[in-house]
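Retro notes, item 3 of 5
We never archived the inputs for the flavin-adenine dinucleotide complex last cycle. Fixing that now. Sequence and ligand:
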Amino acid sequence: MNIAELFKEKTVFSFEVFPPKKESGVETIYQTLKDLKDLRPDFISVTYGAGGTGVANATTIDLCSKIKNEYHIETIAHLSCLYNTKESVDKILEQLKAKGIENILALRGDVNPDYEVKKDFQYASDLTEYILAKNMGFYVSGACYPEVHQEAENMVEDIKNLKKKVEAGADHLISQLFFDNHAFYDFIEKVRIAGIDVPVEAGIMPVTNKKQIERMVSMCGASIPAKLSKVLQKFGDDPIAMRDAGISYAVDQIVDLVANGVDGVHIYTMNDPYVAKRISDSVENIIK
Ligand code: FAD
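Structure as it came back at the time:
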């Protein structure tokens, strides 16, 4: 089914997982999925390849297939295009189709200096258009950036580009992680003024590890509000306290988002079912 349809019925609650690095084996992720499925999310999305290069793409399709066909939970396969050709995308689409996977998060991918960019697709909107023109029954989602994509000139240009992606056919958006809900509300207001009216899910990453969050923030440019900064200062060196404080911060964000009418919440689980369960249990009577 088209993920976008889910938003007509409820506030959507979804998870994201990533395929394990080759050396860490697939057994762990299978156990993770088993645990996540018991939380009955509306869908689970699976990221594509390290740095968007497609290195782990077979695993993305396998994991999506398991989610959809064994656990009967909707799934979105991420697919990035900078390092794909039309021919390689065609192969992936065939594989997705064969496994009954209907939803794709069409992405550009990050620039990785170790790989040569292919020239077939420049932006996520090119991939979106290409997938939909094939008429293979796929539905396409896209990414968006409440605090502006790092390469965009400014918010106005970024939202104009986002509109192109939606006009190309993306009918559901998932946001980059953010820690300041006001940044998200400001963004949504601008997006709606721009005439983008598809559902936008808020991307929430529980901060359970100080080092990991410093790395993430340097990669994606999310701002750290004073409240979170204090939490990191106080609990950053105590792993268990940091985990619990991070879960609490994420729950607090979600409650505020739902109270303000968010379309949906997408949890970046970091493949940690324990954290996903704690959050899920805390909001089960809030997200409906
Ligand atoms: P685009 O929408 O193409 O935008 C990229 C930049 O180009 C922006 O600055 C935009 O303003 C600009 N732009 C877009 N269209 C035009 C145009 N027509 N003319 C001029 N400028 C334009 N990466 C992975 O490798 N694998 C994943 O699985 C993955 N999953 C993600 C999931 C989510 C929810 C998010 C938010 C990001 C994810 N990423 C993933 C990271 C993503 O690939 C990077 O953020 C990448 O830098 C941008 O991808 P995009 O699809 O948003 O690009």
